[in-house]
Amino acid sequence: MVSTSHLFDPNLLGDDLKADLPQGYVIRPLSQDDFSKGYVDLLSTLTTVGDVTEESFNATFQAMRRSNIYYITVIEDTAAERVVASGSLICELKFIHSCGKVGHVEDVVVAKDQQGKKLGATIIKQLMVLSQNLECYKTILDCSEANAPFYKKCGMIEKGVQMAIYFDKDGSNGADKKTSTSESSKETADEVITKGINGVKL
Ligand SMILES: CC(C)(COP(=O)(O)OP(=O)(O)OC[C@H]1O[C@@H](n2cnc3c(N)ncnc32)[C@H](O)[C@@H]1OP(=O)(O)O)[C@@H](O)C(=O)NCCC(=O)NCCS
């Protein structure tokens, strides 16, 4: 029986990488309790997080859990009861490649005071194990040039070109903007579920 507090079944994570972690650190699925273990603070190392209350965190967590495509994996320093690293795998269902699946890696982050301890590499390796356990035929990600050497050290190769378009609240686009100013993050998870994403009901 899978705990409802976990985002996904922990059995999907292999045991092999646990030895790579410093003593007292565990790797596991994101849990709803992680709001109180500094998860939102950790994400702020990566980018602007905005206003995320415990209520909106829980609603989004449950929406992700129901959709069954989110595999956010975290490392916790159990002595400090603090989440110190995270990476997201989103498993996309496709018709091509015989109804195959593609993994998308997003939001890889290690707390500033924990960088350089191979936690980032362990998260990436774990997301690759997960991708294979989920039978993805490939897993891809976008990153800055500055971070490309890190992903290459994790065994990934450069492929293709990254494209982006950013949308403002009024529906206009700001193709020249470097960061998103989308207000869609202010929608509640229930609104997202009702509307779906790009017309696809969750
Ligand atoms: C990028 C990041 C995830 C790396 O995590 P980390 O735990 O510090 O990295 P690791 O200790 O696992 O490093 C693994 C290897 O990659 C190298 N490495 C890490 N970051 C690197 C970088 N930016 N450029 C070049 N090499 C890098 C390390 O030196 C190490 O090399 P080694 O195996 O030869 O010793 C982390 O620095 C981070 O969270 N940065 C801020 C957020 C961010 O930019 N996220 C990525 C979004 S695409």
TrEMBL record:
Span of domain N-acetyltransferase: 25-181
GO CC entries: endoplasmic reticulum membrane
SUPFAM superfamilies given in the database record: Acyl-CoA N-acyltransferases (Nat)
UniProt GO molecular function: glucosamine 6-phosphate N-acetyltransferase activity
Recorded topology in the membrane: Peripheral membrane protein
Record-listed E.C. numbers: 2.3.1.4
Record field: catalytic activity: D-glucosamine 6-phosphate + acetyl-CoA = N-acetyl-D-glucosamine 6-phosphate + CoA + H(+)
Pathway(s): Nucleotide-sugar biosynthesis; UDP-N-acetyl-alpha-D-glucosamine biosynthesis; N-acetyl-alpha-D-glucosamine 1-phosphate from alpha-D-glucosamine 6-phosphate (route I): step 1/2
Subcellular location: Endomembrane system; Endoplasmic reticulum membrane
Main location: membrane
Keyword Hydrolase: no
Family statement drawn from the similarity comment of this UniProt entry: Belongs to the acetyltransferase family. GNA1 subfamily.
Protein name: Glucosamine 6-phosphate N-acetyltransferase
Gene, per the UniProt record: GNA1
